[in-house]
User: Fold this.
Amino acid sequence: MTTESQKDFLSRIKKALEARHEKRVTWDELAEMAGIEPRTLKTYRMPEGSADYRQMPTLARQALEHLMAQPRASVVNTSTLVSALSSLVISQARLTLIDRSMVSGMDAVHGRRGGLTREDRRIMAMVSRFCLQAGLPDHGGEIHNLLALCKQPLEAWLNLPEIVNQGLGAIVLIEPEYGTPTPEAQDLALNFSTIAAHLEERLFENLKESLKRYPEQSAASYYTAIREFVVRNPVATEDTLAYSKPTVPGGLWMMIQKEYYEPIPSGLVRNGKIVQCAHCNSLMQKHALSGQLSCQSRACHQSRPTLAGETLDATNARRAHKSIHQYWVEPGIDEIFLYDALIKAGLSAELYPHQDRVDIAIGGIGMDLKTYASPEILGAKFKTGIGGLSHYGEKWVVIPDWLIRLTPNYLDRLRSAMGEASAQRLRCLSSSQALHEAVNQGGVPCAN
Assistant:
């Protein structure tokens, strides 16, 4: 039996819709009906051997198939809704974090920075339509209110049965502490349209480009040293940055100090002082109601008892840029905790080997630690590819214990979402299980 190509699949959907609506449907109209960016749909239609060919994500395929089952008045499903909303979050983050423009309810016009594009308005209208059909308040009518709601789990404000049933209810699209898009938002937005590089990606690319000037082995060593230092020092004094820096070339370290660290915002300072967490060195903040100090890092707060560390002069301190904190420090805290435990157990663990091929390696064991709120999204990600884990004989996906405690049946749901083929290749473990397994194995298998 011949497998239908992606191009043939799209042509079949287009012809079926034309027959159903009794009129010609252009490719751009089909893209709009499915909630896919027209230029992205064009890459899906290219021959597989073409350099411009792009494999269609599962959500995009589902959105197109759903057109055939939908009543004529409704052509967008909730998967497309969440992907579209994620795309809106990313576009507004790009404006504020990279272009330094303010979020505005005004329409975008030539010659003025910021504003809402026609695509942004269409997504907001999509949110409004779903809300009103479900008897919910019109959350899509005002951009500032909509973005504020995106700091909460979807089930708290966009509680649609289809979203909850797909395991998307617990997803937060904007990290409330830092105002940056979450990893889930970025993955979901990729299923809707192509996204311009986020600020963290741009900084990461700059670092990778700078490392190309050095021999491969040295570059890998510098990368690990830099990333480990930043994760262990999300807040650091100027003396620490100047005199306790990792062993890397001076020019490279100057770039890290300039681009990866920033002054402490005045809103986080009390009487000219800040307090660090004793466990992870992040900022401690007072709870608005109780007045009690707690660690700013969710990973540390959820897995360690509250313990205040050093009190620092805020004028002599710097913090990791909020995007670096979100995408390096926040997941890195769990990585460092596990890495330190492995070293303490006498294992020869490597942190971020080969410029982040995986998070931790021990001989032929490769470990990727993930903190996705939704096991379904993480499973779909691994279903499409396993990344650097392919270089290792044993491939472990490690989920922090605190996240498993918060999410019912996380590992079972993750394995199910991966599909049988990926679940057979990858081991899904909690961080405590990974530590126990690594210690028990002792002699580890050889790498591929």
Summary: The chain has 22 helices and twelve strands. The radius of gyration is 23 Å. The chain has a mean pLDDT of 84.
